[in-house]
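Example (one chain per record):
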Amino acid sequence: MTLLQLKNELEQMAHIAFKLPNGELIPPHFHLTEIGTVTRNFVDCGGTLRQEKKASLQLWTALDFDHRLEVKTMQEIIAMAERTFNILDLTIEVQYQGETTLETFGVDISDGTFQLVPLSTACLALDKCGIPEEKQKLELSGLSNSNGCQPGSGCC
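Predicted structure:
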């Protein structure tokens, strides 16, 4: 999801909720501590120079149980980030404190709740990595025989 998509989803919401991949909701007294850009410059294993730029949102929960981030407040924070960084077209990554480390997630929407989704990695230079392509598995019983030969007919 891009920041623009998140901004548009907020237009339809009365309350903001984020759900972790395990199905638990982030406590409703969470804070949006920052919105910014993260730019990563790197060389992949095939020697190609790359740059990746994302919008980063950091969520945090504290002991102020009466706190609630209002939709209007989140929209104002996004508007300030939009004016400052011009980041509406960037994909969002959300950071949230996990059990032992700061975890990073992608974002989706379902039933009016922002779903934090696990991120994964992959090789960006498979053609140079030496990893064989995964072979397509075929169900032999589903193959048709174009010459009309049937098993047991003696024509093969």
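Caption: The two ends are 55 Å apart (CA to CA).
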